[in-house]
Amino acid sequence: MSVTKAAEKKASSNRRSAELLDLYERMVLIREAERMCGVLFAEGEIPGFIHLSDGQEAVSVGVMASMTAEDTISSTHRGHGHALAKGLALDSFFKELMGKVDGACKGRGGSMHVADLSVGMLGANGIVGGGVAIAVGSGLAHKLRGGDAIAASFFGDGALAEGVFHESLNIASLMQIPVLFACENNGWSEFSPTSTQIVFSLEDLAAAHKIDYRRVDGSDLEEVSAVASEIIDAMRRDRRPRVLECITVRARGHFEGDAQRYRGAGPAPVDPLAKTRLLLEEAGASAGDLDQLSERARTQVAAAIEAARRSDEPTLQSAAEEVYAQGVKP
Ligand SMILES: Cc1ncc(C[n+]2csc(CCOP(=O)(O)OP(=O)(O)O)c2C)c(N)n1
């Protein structure tokens, strides 16, 4: 190998390691934010229900590595990772989950309906499949406006049984809408295995709707980000929909507090964070530097929680505010 070729190869491998480190840091931040969500929920500081996405971080971070602020996403009840990966600020996130006036939705959305249009996060969604059609609508808007922005819908395998999902695939294919259907297949729909719920494969369904389909190992950050980048680049050019099935794990219960009595002892799930950390260490990152990165995440999350604690709750008198869009009469 020539000296120039060797130098190019080294530079490209350094670039890859720097990108991987950046994505790893985002995953660590999501894991830490969710760990603290669990603590705050148990202590009664987060009202309602929360559903954590431990084990699924490589999907949100890997796919969104190729998205910009102009691109839009819709999410699910398990949407913390999606919101943070899309760029929702930590402060806004914790204030929203803790029901405070300075939250992303002024404390009205909470965990299951957090949204921030300024970063293209169209909302988490308590309705299974509810976000899918929203992303299709947003993708249509991108197409009509011109440019190369795309929309993505993150949904679980449970959404495959919903009518709206089938309608959404059909219309996206019929009208050639640049929407990425990103399925996080963790094998569970609440307390039931997917195999007891669905009779078709997502691959067959995509083929029936004439939409290109790819499957990735959702615990493998490098694979998710490489395949997503390829797909999204193609979508920016050809303005067509795509289906990406990410095989992933739900490391925790369906919701926080779920005793998981329905769950048998299976093989230990692969942790995408541990897997990526190993890769980084093999590429030369020191354990000390990686520990420091985790420490930084803990400090950032702790500061955001403290800021949320200092923020006020909405007043009772303001309960009816923000119900209607500005300028729209009831
Ligand atoms: C339309 C609708 N039906 C049923 C429910 C109750 N429900 C909440 S979560 C869930 C399962 C979701 O499974 P999946 O989409 O695979 O996501 P996961 O929880 O595995 O991330 C169900 C059936 C709901 N919220 N909305």
TrEMBL record:
<dbReference type="GO" id="GO:0004739">
    <property type="term" value="F:pyruvate dehydrogenase (acetyl-transferring) activity"/>
</dbReference>
<keyword id="KW-0560">Oxidoreductase</keyword>
<comment type="function">
    <text>The pyruvate dehydrogenase complex catalyzes the overall conversion of pyruvate to acetyl-CoA and CO(2). It contains multiple copies of three enzymatic components: pyruvate dehydrogenase (E1), dihydrolipoamide acetyltransferase (E2) and lipoamide dehydrogenase (E3).</text>
</comment>
<feature type="domain" description="Dehydrogenase E1 component">
    <location>
        <begin position="25"/>
        <end position="315"/>
    </location>
</feature>
<dbReference type="InterPro" id="IPR050642">
    <property type="entry name" value="PDH_E1_Alpha_Subunit"/>
</dbReference>
<feature type="region of interest" description="Disordered">
    <location>
        <begin position="305"/>
        <end position="330"/>
    </location>
</feature>
<dbReference type="InterPro" id="IPR001017">
    <property type="entry name" value="DH_E1"/>
</dbReference>
<dbReference type="Pfam" id="PF00676">
    <property type="entry name" value="E1_dh"/>
</dbReference>
<dbReference type="GO" id="GO:0006086">
    <property type="term" value="P:pyruvate decarboxylation to acetyl-CoA"/>
</dbReference>
<protein>
    <submittedName>
        <fullName>Acetoin:2,6-dichlorophenolindophenol oxidoreductase subunit alpha</fullName>
        <ecNumber>1.1.1.-</ecNumber>
    </submittedName>
</protein>
<keyword id="KW-0786">Thiamine pyrophosphate</keyword>
<dbReference type="InterPro" id="IPR029061">
    <property type="entry name" value="THDP-binding"/>
</dbReference>
